[in-house]
Amino acid sequence: MQQQHQPRIYVAGHRGLVGSALWRELQHQGYSNLIGRTHTELDLLNAQAVYQFYAEAKPEYVFVAAAKVGGIHANNTEPGQFLFENLQIQNHLIHGAWKAGVKKLLFLGSSCIYPKHAPQPLREGHLLTGPLEPTNEWYAIAKIAGIKLCQAYRRQYGCDYISAMPTNMYGPNDNYDLENSHVLPALIRKFHEAKSAGLPEVLCWGTGTPQREFLYADDLARACVFLMQHYSDEQFINVGYGSDLTIRELAETVQRIIGFGGK
Known about the structure:
Elements: E1 9-12, H1 17-28, E2 34-35, H2 47-57, E3 61-64, H3 72-77, H4 79-100, E4 104-108, H5 137-157, E5 160-166, E6 168-170, H6 183-197, E7 211-212, E8 214-216, H7 217-230, E9 237-239, E10 245-246, H8 247-258
Helix pairs in contact: 1-7, 2-4, 4-5, 6-8
């Protein structure tokens, strides 16, 4: 992905948390020939629409940051949608890239691909060594299929397709919907609204003891662009911050920064 001729780079999901960070980082590094499509401009669930887009836009490099995402509640209540739609989106983007002769593709997965009781710290070799976390196994199975599709196309067709697995993400353009957001934006919104309304307490789900690792979206974007420039292998790569904290510590940090004085 050299800048001399300003390659055509398609960021699928360029309006989302990770996709918008990729867009910013690519612009920051001097890439100006960027391609993005909103959902109304391109329905990624429509295979023919995706193939036609590839034929017309002719991207040379593709970042697959488009997905149906959500937190525990959304995964639990919409398992069919999470599995079907994510399989469709990534199948169309990856297969379409092969049909169009894309030079290189990076597929973004999620740390939820790992078994529920995988040893810590999580290592790439732990994939498929045990049962998944039941609350988000539908999303995880789709992401595992995406990794395997990239590996299969590399083996069968010689495609330079790579995969990166980020830990829990946060940053600009995150989703703050209380029904389907992830833990950090949900806590930010809960504490902000409680402070604004003068409520005496904020209810946080769970015991607070689980540990999670969080990564700022722009840091992930730098890692992904680096991988696109320098990495080419079948083995997917974990991308993380390197340390974690408990959900209780996270909630108390959000409470302190927002300035909520209740319980």
